[in-house]
Amino acid sequence: xxxxxxxxxxxxxxxxxxxxxxxxxxxxxxxxxxxxxxxxxxxxxxxxxxxxxxxxxxxxxxxxxxxxxxxxxxxxxxxxxxxxxxxxxxxxxxxxxxxxxxxxxxxxxxxxxxxxxxxxxxxxxxxxxxxxxxxxxxxxxxxxxxxxxxxxxxxxxxxxxxxxxxxxxxxxxxxxxxxxxxxxxxxxxxxxxxxxxxxxxxxxxxxxxxxxxxxxxxxxxxxxxxxxxxxxxxxxxxxxxxxxxxxxx
Amino acid sequence: xxxxxxxxxxxxxxxxxxxxxxxxxxxxxxxxxxxxxxxxxxxxxxxxxxxxxxxxxxxxxxxxxxxxxxxxxxxxxxxxxxxxxxxxxxxxxxxxxxxxxxxxxxxxxxxxxxxxxxxxxxxxxxxxxxxxxxxxxxxxxxxxxxxxxxxxxxxxxxxxxxxxxxxxxxxxxxxxxxxxxxxxxxxxxxxxxxxxxxxxxxxxxxxxxxxxxxxxxxxxxxxxxxxxxxxxxxxxxxxxxxxxxxxxx
Amino acid sequence: xxxxxxxxxxxxxxxxxxxxxxxxxxxxxxxxxxxxxxxxxxxxxxxxxxxxxxxxxxxxxxxxxxxxxxxxxxxxxxxxxxxxxxxxxxxxxxxxxxxxxxxxxxxxxxxxxxxxxxxxxxxxxxxxxxxxxxxxxxxxxxxxxxxxxxxxxxxxxxxxxxxxxxxxxxxxxxxxxxxxxxxxxxxxxxxxxxxxxxxxxxxxxxxxxxxxxxxxxxxxxxxxxxxxxxxxxxxxxxxxxxxxxxxxxxxxxxxxxxxxxxxxxxxxxxxxxxxxxxxxxxxxxxxxxxxxxxxxxxxxxxxxxxxxxxxxxxxxxxxxxxxxxxxxxxxxxxxxxxxxxxxxxxxxxxxxxxxxxxxxxxxxxxxxxxxxxxxxxxxxxxxxxxxxxxxxxxxxxxxxxxxxxxxxxxxxxxxxxxxxxxxxxxxxxxxxxxxxxxxxxxxxxxxxxxxxxxxxxxxxxxxxxxxxxxxxxxxxxxxxxxxxxxxxxxxxxxxxxxxxxxxxxxxxxxxxxx
Amino acid sequence: xxxxxxxxxxxxxxxxxxxxxxxxxxxxxxxxxxxxxxxxxxxxxxxxxxxxxxxxxxxxxxxxxxxxxxxxxxxxxxxxxxxxxxxxxxxxxxxxxxxxxxxxxxxxxxxxxxxxxxxxxxxxxxxxxxxxxxxxxxxxxxxxxxxxxxxxxxxxxxxxxxxxxxxxxxxxxxxxxxxxxxxxxxxxxxxxxxxxxxxxxxxxxxxxxxxxxxxxxxxxxxxxxxxxxxxxxxxxxxxxxxxxxxxxxxxxxxxxxxxxxxxxxxxxxxxxxxxxxxxxxxxxxxxxxxxxxxxxxxxxxxxxxxxxxxxxxxxxxxxxxxxxxxxxxxxxxxxxxxxxxxxxxxxxxxxxxxxxxxxxxxxxxxxxxxxxxxxxxxxxxxxxxxxxxxxxxxxxxxxxxxxxxxxxxxxxxxxxxxxxxxxxxxxxxxxxxxxxxxxxxxxxxxxxxxxxxxxxxxxxxxxxxxxxxxxxxxxxxxxxxxxxxxxxxxxxxxxxxxxxxxxxxxxxxxxxxx
Lengths: 249, 249, 514, 514
Ligand code: B12
Ligand code: B12
Ligand SMILES: Cc1ncc(COP(=O)(O)O)c(C=O)c1O
Ligand SMILES: Cc1ncc(COP(=O)(O)O)c(C=O)c1O
Hints:
The complex is a heterotetramer, with two copies of chain A and two copies of chain C.
Chain A: E1 6-7, E2 18-25, H1 31-43, E3 46-58, E4 61-70, E5 74-75, H2 91-102, E6 106-112, H3 120-126, E7 143-147, H4 154-164, E8 168-172, H5 180-194, E9 202-206, H6 212-217, E10 222-224, H7 230-247
Parallel strand pairs in A: 6-7, 6-8, 8-9, 9-10
Antiparallel strand pairs in A: 1-5, 2-4, 3-4
Chain C: H1 9-31, E1 33-35, H2 36-45, H3 58-68, H4 76-87, H5 91-99, H6 116-119, H7 121-144, E2 152-157, H8 162-175, E3 179-182, H9 210-227, E4 232-236, H10 242-251, E5 256-258, H11 263-267, H12 272-289, E6 292-294, H13 300-303, H14 310-326, E7 334-335, E8 337-339, H15 349-363, E9 370-372, H16 382-398, E10 403-405, H17 418-434, H18 438-441, E11 442-444, H19 449-471, H20 473-479, E12 498-500, H21 508-513
Parallel strand pairs in C: 2-3, 2-10, 3-4, 4-5, 5-6, 6-7, 8-9, 9-10
Antiparallel strand pairs in C: 1-12
One cobalamin (B12) sits between chains A (115-122, 124-125, 131, 170-172, 174-177, 204-209, 224-229, 233) and C (183-184, 186-187, 204-205, 267, 299, 302-303, 375-376, 378, 411-412, 414-415).
C-alpha cells in the first residue's frame, strides 16, 4: 500500500478507502433486511461497514445508505490509457493532417438511429456551433458532413453511406434502457458486415452511456461518451484512416 | 436466483441488482482516474458499470458517482436475527417479569463516557420522557436508575457502579472518529475485568454507530444503535439477568 | 401573496386574439380532413377491439381495407353503418369479416337520407355511456378525497414492463405521489397501430395498450382506496395513434393525457397536417371524458435556451389553449406545460424562473398548469441534482403550480429507480410542508425585475404570435419558430394517412361533440 | 427587500438594557478575579513559549508554581516583573528556571511604586506589535479581495490530523470556501493546558496548538494568494484554556474564534465563575486582534426545541452582545450565533425559520451573524440531507446572514469527507448564484405571520432577560434556563483555577485594553 502506484478511495485520510453506497432491498425494513444489507456490504469487499440509513419505501422494499472501506487497492501501473483518449488536435491541425496524409476531403455521415429521438448529442458533434464552446465537424474544411438527424433506420443510414461514399459513420444512441442501444448498434455492424462495408468505413458510436470499451466489444472502431467533443472524434478518425492507409501498403 | 430466499438489490426490476456508489480518488480527473474508478467498480464485484459523474474536487482529487449491478445474491436462509432484536416488552410486562423472576428492583447506571459530551442518546434511553414517544427507564417501577451524564471517566463509572451495587451498566458513545469509541469501550471492559466486575453486571453500550456485533466483539453483552429505545434495552437486560440467574443453578 | 403578477391586460388580449385566429385557421383545415387514426378511433368507439392472427388490431385491418380501396375519405362510420344495415352484423363482426376477406366494404352504401349516426346509435351510445360513467366515477372519487393546498406530485414510471410499473406506481402512491404517468416505450409514437394486451418489453417506457391502461387503473384504484386518496393516471395521446389512445384513455378512466398540438411535428417528425387533424379529435374525446391534457412546451427548452426562448413557451401555450378551446376542451382541463430549465449557474436564474412561472400562472388562471423539472442541466452528480430539484420544488410551490412533475436526481442517468422516486417525493413533500404558508407571507416588489421580465417575455410572445398569425401556422413551423426545429408541411411521417373528406363522410362522435 | 423586519423598538431597547445590566453585574465579579488560564495567557503574551521535558508548557509550569505557593492571586505578571527586575532574565528564561527548580518566584517582590507594566514594557510591546501587525495584514488582504454580496461560506475540517486538515482545507478553499474552521478534538476543552507542536492524533477534530494554527494559516495564505481571495481561519477559544487560545490566535492571525460566554458552562460543565472570567479576557484579546467571535446559541437547539426555545437564542445573543461590549469588542466583530434547527416536517417551519433569522438580523444590524445549518434533524439519508441544506442555504441568503456555516449531507454520519464538503459548497454556491437578487424582489407582508412570530419571540426573550436580570446570571444558570441544562455555580470543572485578585495583582494587557 506504501507504493505510490497503489491507490484507494479517499474520504478524509489517505488510503482510508471510504466509499458511499445506496441500494434498495426487496424486503420489509427490519432486523433481517438490515442483516442482508450488511451482508451485501461484506460481499462488496468492504470493511468498517456503517449502515447509516434504513428507510422503508413501501411494504416489501427498503432503502439503505451505507459507508464502508474498500479493502483492495488499485495498481495504477496496470492502467492503460485508451486509444481514443489521445490529446485532441485543433481544427487546423486536423485539416492539415488530412491534407498531408490523405490528400482529399473526408465524408462523414451521422445519425441518431433506431427509434432514438435524441439529437442533441449528435448535433453537439456535427453541427457547426458544437457544444460547450467546442466547434463541430461542419467547421472543418477537409470534412464533408451529413447529419441525418434522429430516428434513422440502420438501413437508411447505410444506404446514404454507400451513396455518399462515406469514410466515417457516426452513430448516436442515448436511450439505453433494456439495452436497446446494444441491439441497435449490433444490428448496424451486422448489416455493414453483410454488405461488405464494415472495413471500408470507420464506425464510431457515441452517447452518454457509451464507453470506448463497449464500442470495441460491439465491433466499432471507437466509442465516445459525455465530455467528448468533435475534436476528439476528428482526431481519432483521421488517425485511424491514416493507420488503415499505411497498413494497406 | 429463482429461489425466493435469494435476493439482490432492486432498482426498477426484480433482481436487477442495482447499486449506487460514490467515492473520491486521490488522482487528477482524466482518463487514468476514470479507468481506476471502473476498476474499483469491478473489484466491488459489480457489472453493467456506469460511471455517471466525474468531478474534480481539487488538483489531485476526483469524485465519482457510479452505478452497477451486484453479481452475487444474498441467501436469506443464512441470516440469523440477533438476540437483541427480540420484540420489546411493555413497561408493565417488564416490571412484572422482574417482580416474578428476580423478585427485587434492579439498579441501572448509565453515562456517556470518556471525553464524549453527547448526552441526548443516553438521555433518550434513561430519562423519564424518553425519545420519539418511547418512555425511558426512569419510568419503570422496578428499576432504580442513575444517569451520570456526559464526559464521565470509566473509573468514575465503575466506582459508582460498585457503590450502588449495580446490575446493569449502560454506556453511550457517539464520537467514533479514529475509533475513539472502541478505545473507550475496551478500556471500560478491561477495567471491569481487572476489578472482577465483568460478570457481576450486565454491560450494554449504545450510540448511533454502535451495532450489536461490535458490542459483542468488544466484550459487551449487547449493543444498541439508532432506532433502539428504552423498552428494547429493558427487555434485553431483564432477560439476560434471568438467564444468568437460571444458569447459576 | 406571491402567486400573482400584474400583466398588461391589453397585451394579453392581443396575444390571445392572435392565438384564436391561428386556431380558427387550423380548425378550418382540420374540418375538411380525416386520417387513418381518426377512422380507427371511430372503429374503436363503435366497439371494434382485439387483434387478428398476425396481431394487427381489427381497427387497423378495417381502416387499411378502406384505404386500400380508396374509401378513406368517406370514412369508417359510413361503411360500418352501411354494412350493419344490410348484414345486421355488429361493428366487431364486420371488422372480423373484413379481416377474413369475407366482406368488401366498398360494396355497401347507405340509402339516401340515412345517416351513420342513426344506424349506429346503439353502438355510439354504449361508448358514450361508458365514457360518461368513467367520468362520473372519477369526479366522485375526487370529491371524496381531501383537498390539497399544494401542487399535485406527478411521477413517472418507465420500466418497460407493466407489472414492474405497477409495483413502482403503487410504491410511489404510498410514498405520496398523486399522479402516475406511465412513460411510453421509445418508438411507439411512430407505430401506426396500438399494440394489444399486457406488455413487458418496452425501452425507456412501456407500450400504451388498453390492457396496460386497465391493469394500471385497477392497481391505482386499489392503492388509492387503501390510502383514502385518488391516484390519477396519465399516458400519452400523441404520435400516429393520438386519437385512438384518447379513446382508450376515456374508456379506461385515465385522468390526464400528454397531448400537444405541435409536439409530434417537432419532436417526432410527424407530418403537421396529420397531427393537427388527429389532435383535434383527440381533444374532443379528452374534453368529453373530463381528461386533463398535458401540453409539451417544456420540450422546447431541452433543445433551445430557456432564457432566450422563454417567449416560445408562452406563445405555444396560447396556441395550445386556443386549439383546445376550438375542440371544446375547457380551461379547467388544460394542463399547459412549462419548465424550470434555466442553467443553475446563471446569475439570478431563479428570479427569471419565478417570473416565467408567474407569467404562465397569470395568463391561464383557470388552467391546471403542468410544471416540468430541470432535465437539461441535470448531471450525473445526483447530489447536486437533489438540490436543483429542491429549488424547482420551491419555485413550483411558491408560484402555485398545479401539476408538479417531479424531478429525479438520476435524470441524467437512467429512468427512475424506486428509490429515486421515493427520494424525490420526500424532497417535494418536505418543501411543501416546511414552506406551507410562505407564499402568503411574501409579496412581489411592484415594478421590480420579476414584473419586468414577465412583461418582456409576454411582449416577445405576442410578436411571435403575430408573425405566426400572419404567415399561418404551417408556414411558421416550416420556418422553425419552436425549439429551433423546422418541419415541412409535406414531410414527416403519416401524411399518407390523411384524406380530404368526401361529402358522404361522417364522424358521428365529432358531430355530437362539436 | 426581504432582509428587514419591523420590530417594536421599545421592546428592543428594554431587552438590551436588561442585557447590559446583567453584563455589568458579571463584569463586577470578573474584575475582582483571575484564573490560571488568564495567568498563563499573560505568560504567553510575555513571550513564554515551549514545553518542558514532560511536555508541560512553560506557561503552565510557571502558573502551577504560583498556585502551589498560593501566589495565584497576585498574578504572574507581578512575579515575572519582579524576577526580571532582579535577575534580568527574560520571561522565557524565568519560566525555564522555575521548571528546573532554580527559581522560587515567591522570593521576588516589586519595589513599591514600580508596576509590572513598566518593568515588562518591552515584552508587552513586542506582543502588542505582533498582534497589531497581524491585524493590519488581515485588513490589507481583505481590502484587496473582491467584495461578496452573499454569506461567507464557512466549512469545518475535522480529520484529527493537521496535515490532512490542510489538504482538506486547501481543497475546500479551491471549491469556494471562504472560511475554514479547524474543529477541535473531543476533550481538548477539558484540558487545563494547550498541547504543543504539530499534531496528528485527534478525535472528531484536531488539537488546537499554536503550531497547528501557524501551519494552517500558512497553507490558507498560500492558496488564498493563488485564488485571489483571503481565506479566513477559525478555531475555538473555549474550554479551560480560552484566553490562551485567544492569544495564540491573535499571534497567528486567526480571523474568527468560537467564543461564547455560556457554552463551556452548559455543554462542557466548566465552572461558571471560571468561564466568565476567562471569556472576558479572551474577548479583550479578540477585540484588539480584530478577531470575530462566534457565539454558540445554535447549540441550545440541538437539545431544546427550536420552535419553543427560539427566545433563548435571542436572549443569549443579547447577553453575548452585552458581555462583548463590556470587554470592548465592537459589534462588527460579533458573530452572534443562531441556527436553522426546526424539524423539516413541521408545517410552515420554514416560515418560522425566516422569522427567527430576520429577528436576529434586525436586532444586530452591524453584527456579522453566524448562521448554523440543520444538524439535529439530519439523518443517514444523505439525499434528504442535501435538500435540507438547500433550504437552509436559501434562508441564509434571503435573510442576509454573514457567516454561513455549511451544512453537510453526512452530518448524522461522520465528520466531513472531502467530497461531502465539495458537494455542500456546490449546493450553497448554486443557491447563491441562482437566487442572486431575489431578496430585493420580494417583500415581507406587513403584519403577517413572519412579523408576528418575530415579535412574539422577542417578547419571550425580553421576559427571560428580565428574569435573569432579577435573579442574576449565576442563579439563572442554576435554574437551567438555557438548553434545558442546569449548572451549579460551585460545580463543574476548573473552579480550583479561580482566584480573587490581591491588591498587588496586575494584568498589564487587560489594563491597556480596558
Ligand atoms: C433533451 C432530452 C430529451 C429531449 C430530446 C430532444 C432532442 N431533440 O434531442 C426530449 C424531450 C424530446 C426527450 C425525449 C425522451 N427522452 Co430524453 N432526455 C433528454 C435529456 C434531458 C438531455 C439529453 C441531452 O440532450 N444531453 C446533452 C448532450 C450533448 O449529451 P449527450 O447526448 O450525452 O452527447 C454527448 C456525448 O454523449 C457525445 N455523443 C453523443 N452522441 C454521440 C455520437 C457520436 C458519434 C459521438 C462521437 C459522440 C456522441 O457527445 C456529446 C457531447 O459531449 C436527458 C437527461 C439528461 N440530463 O441527460 C434525457 C434522457 C436521455 N431521455 C431519456 C428518455 C427515456 C427519453 C424518452 C425515451 C422518454 C419517453 N419514453 O418518452 C423520450 C425519447 C423518445 C425517443 N423516441 O427517443 C432518458 C434515457 C434513459 C436511458 N438511459 O435509457 C434520459 C437519460 C432521462 C431519464 N433519466 O429518463 N429527451
Ligand atoms: C446534538 C449534537 C451535539 C451536541 C450535543 C449536546 C448534548 N448534550 O448531547 C453538541 C452541539 C454539544 C455537540 C458537540 C460535538 N459533536 Co455532536 N452532534 C450532535 C448531533 C447533531 C445529534 C446527536 C444526537 O443528539 N442524536 C439524537 C440521539 C437520540 O441519537 P443517538 O445518540 O444515536 O441515540 C440513540 C441510539 O444511538 C441509542 N443510544 C445512544 N446511546 C445509547 C446508550 C445505550 C446504553 C443504549 C442502550 C442506547 C443508546 O439510543 C438513542 C435513541 O435511539 C450529531 C449529528 C446527528 N444529526 O446525528 C452530531 C455528531 C454526533 N457530533 C459530532 C462531533 C464530532 C461533535 C464534537 C466532537 C465536535 C467538536 N469537535 O467540537 C462535539 C462534542 C465534543 C465532545 N467532547 O464530545 C459528530 C460525530 C462524528 C463521529 N461519528 O465521530 C456528529 C455525527 C456530527 C458530525 N457529522 O460531525 N454535538
Ligand atoms: C406532449 C408530449 N407528448 C408525447 C411525449 C412522449 O413522446 P412519444 O409520443 O414519442 O411517446 C412527450 C414527452 O415528453 C410530450 O411532452
Ligand atoms: C461556542 C462554542 N465553543 C466551543 C465549541 C467546541 O467545543 P469544545 O470547546 O469542547 O471543543 C463549540 C461547538 O460547537 C461552540 O459552539
